[in-house]
Write a structure and sequence with these properties.
Chain A: InterPro entries: Leu-bd, Peripla_BP_I. The complex is a heterodimer of chains A (396) and B (291). By secondary structure, chain A is an alpha/beta fold. In chain A, 45% of the residues lie in helices and 16% in strands. Chain A folds into three domains: 27 residues; 198 residues, Rossmann fold (3-Layer(aba) Sandwich); 149 residues, Rossmann fold (3-Layer(aba) Sandwich), CATH 3.40.50.2300. Chain B is 71% helix and 3% strand. The chains are: A alpha/beta (396), B mainly alpha (291).
Chain lengths: 396, 291
């Protein structure tokens, strides 16, 4: 008799726990109701990587514009940004909170390889849709719950080399790269392209992200006799390299990765050398000042909805990753569900916002393989020297 | 190998490291504390100069003087409020306080000026270059670095050898209690040493930022190099530190040219080797305390 009472006493809280857990699960499964759709993103809003935080705020502009027009099939988008300071453990905390407590339907963007890697398996286990992680790392490519937007570094290197050889006719090309996966992936792309032309890099000089004195690297690049240098480095190292080169009278043509296509920023931190030396970069958006109806609508929306924001490339990146998600939500129709959104994403074909043209299918969620090539004009303006071009070479 | 270029650039960067190493050495000379906040104190003061220059639109020299004044105050402030209140401090305890100060300064600077990189220009441009002989290109910036480093070193040498305050600082380092008995106000000496170190630190940092870039992390790597230069030259020797800086710059540049992948670790290999072979550094005298 006593045993029975103990068991009953235990069963009540256990049952309650079970029921509560079940409601939690049901909420997580849906991520929306009749009035709202919940979307999340993480990104460094404070700390050393804060400049990249603009991505998460750029996506907000797209959702605010949608909400202003009445939402998607009558539902408003409720958007959550979690500041992770580019610290993977904080990314995990923010993501868990959004999944478990807020119950989001999908994540969009998310800056950086390391923070993304930290939450990848968690999001996959929970079957949360994730569109456009801001990293070109290969590790993100085979997740069935991820749809990728960020161009791969292999394609970036390959297309920069293609432009240098085919459009500019350079015979001696050197590489200045960050000594990690980013630099190595791009180097593979460059070598693959140069092989097509029976060429080789005249020098490949590594740099660590913390280094500030680049004199020996520049001396090595200079003595290689390079006419053009492809740079796969962070803004700081690119700026210091350019300054150092100028200070020893070395003026090759610099071609940098798409991470450096924010000409306003680069011109600012190089005392205007970026413009004076006419630096070339690849790019993953349309010209920020293009006079197209879509671009104009965004620029006007920024003035109205987020006047404190700078119309910079990281901000635009946030728009680029949010566009296909909004498009898929519209396609999924009023009977929204995770499965419906998934099908809608899988059937996106030839979709064009202000980024590259996207086609996804059930079999492939890989990012677009096309980029533009820009040159910084004498007054810091963007000159599109090569319209969208697709990399036709594969890694093998 | 572009010998001339590596030599000039190596010596110029080395002079900056050496100059910054002096900031570390001055505090070490008086209190035997290695100041791990030196880099971020200099970073913070450089941002003050940048702020005066860009926000108030003041000429460079005004902003630089403001930074020097701020640096001196910052040094005194940190000594007075962070180090002095420590109860029965051990040397290690004081060093940990400097590490905490470094984190605090880095955080405040990121909050106030943001993490985005800034360009900081000084009147000595790295863009104006002279070819003194074939293969030897020197920029205005490098000339300024050599002259300023030489002037500061000459001044310090004179200061520590021939002024009362300099002698008092050396006395305080050798024996704090004896110095006190002889009538030296050791607390004031410490405060002065922190101010002095901070002023030299910001001078080096302004020169470095003009050549590299200004952001809240920009002194992290130079601090490590400067520390290596100071260990190499001997933490007690003023000319030793500057020569150590020069050697450091040259080793890094020539090694970095020959084996770029190994460049970042050169400084640390140098520290380890020196500590193994000559713990007091190339020019330092090793004091043995008698029990």
């Amino acid at each position: 008799m006593k045993m029975k009472r103990i068991l009953t006493a235990l069963a009540v809280p256990l049952l309650a726990l079970f029921l509560l857990a079940d409601t939690g699960f049901a909420q997580r499964e849906r991520g929306f109701d009749d009035k709202e759709i919940r979307i999340g993103q993480w990104g460094p809003q404070t700390g050393p990587a804060a400049p990249w935080g603009a991505v998460a705020r750029g996506s907000k502009l797209v959702f605010d514009m949608v909400n202003e027009k009445g939402g998607i099939h009558g539902r408003q988008i409720r958007y959550f940004i979690r500041d992770d300071q580019y610290n993977p453990s904080q990314t995990m905390a923010g993501v868990r909170e959004l999944v478990d407590r807020r119950g989001v339907l999908a994540f969009v963007g998310g800056v950086g390889t390391a923070p993304g890697m930290a939450v990848q398996s968690y999001l996959r286990q929970n079957e949360i849709i994730w569109v456009g992680v801001c990293s070109g790392a290969e590790a993100f490519q085979d997740n069935p719950w991820q749809w990728n937007m960020w161009p791969s570094y292999f394609d970036d290197g390959s297309l920069l080399a293609k432009f240098a050889v085919e459009n500019k006719g350079y015979k001696k090309i050197a590489l200045f790269y960050q000594n990690d996966d980013w630099g190595m992936d791009a180097m593979k792309g460059i070598n693959r392209r140069l092989k097509e032309h029976n060429m080789e890099l005249v020098a490949a000089v590594p740099v660590e992200p913390i280094e500030r004195d680049l004199s020996s690297q520049i001396a090595r690049l200079q003595s290689s006799g390079a006419e053009a240098i492809i740079g796969i480095v962070a803004p700081t190292q690119a700026a210091i390299a350019l300054r150092t080169a100028v200070s020893v009278g070395f003026q090759p043509q610099w071609l940098h990765s798409y991470n450096l296509c924010d000409f306003a920023l680069m011109n600012h931190i190089t005392d205007g050398l970026w413009a004076r030396e006419g630096v070339i970069t690849s790019a993953f958006t349309d010209d920020p000042n293009a006079d197209t109806p879509l671009m104009n609508s965004y620029r006007e929306a920024v003035k109205k909805l987020a006047p404190e924001e700078r119309w910079g490339i990281f901000y635009m990146a946030g728009i680029v990753v949010a566009e296909p998600l909004v498009h898929a939500l519209e396609k999924a129709g009023p009977d929204l569900s995770t499965a419906a959104l998934r099908d809608a994403l899988d059937s996106i074909a030839d979709f064009k916002g202000i980024g590259p043209r996207i086609t996804w299918s059930k079999e492939s969620h890989r990012p677009p393989r096309e980029l533009q090539i820009w040159q910084c004009g004498p007054n810091g303006e963007t000159i599109v020297v090569q319209d969208w071009i697709e990399n036709e070479l594969s890694m093998e | 190998m572009p010998f001339g270029q590596l030599l000039i650039e190596g010596l110029a960067m080395g002079a900056c490291y050496g100059l910054f190493g002096l900031a570390v050495v001055i505090i070490y000379k008086t209190s035997e504390v290695v100041n791990f906040a030196a880099g971020d104190m200099a970073m913070f003061s450089t941002f003050v100069s940048f702020h005066v220059l860009t926000v108030y639109g003041a000429p460079f020299w005004v902003s630089f003087l403001a930074a020097l004044a701020f640096a001196a105050l910052l040094g005194v402030f940190i000594e007075f409020f962070f180090l002095r209140p420590a109860k029965n401090p051990s040397l290690l305890g004081l060093i940990v306080i400097t590490i905490g100060t470094q984190l605090l300064l880095a955080g405040v600077a990121s909050w106030k000026w943001g993490a985005e990189q800034q360009a900081f220009s000084i009147p000595f441009s790295y863009q104006v270059t002279y070819e003194i002989m074939p293969g030897f290109v020197i920029s205005q910036w490098a000339i300024a670095v050599f002259i300023i480093a030489a002037l500061i070193m000459a001044f310090l040498y004179f200061f520590f050898k021939h002024t009362k305050l300099g002698t008092a600082m050396r006395a305080t380092q050798q024996n704090k209690h004896a110095a006190k008995i002889m009538g030296i106000k050791t607390n004031r000496v410490f405060a002065f040493a922190w101010a002095f170190s901070s002023v030299i630190g910001v001078t080096a940092a302004v020169l470095l930022s003009a050549r590299t870039i200004l952001d809240p992390q920009f002194m992290m790597e130079p601090f490590l190099r400067a520390f290596a230069a100071a260990v190499l030259g001997g933490l007690m020797s003023i000319p030793g530190v500057l020569i150590g800086g020069g050697i450091m710059g040259l080793i890094e540049n020539f090694f970095g040219y020959a084996w770029p992948t190994w460049k970042p670790i050169t400084a640390f290999v140098v520290i380890v080797l020196v500590l193994c072979i000559r713990p007091a550094g190339l020019f330092g005298k090793h004091y043995v305390k008698k029990v």
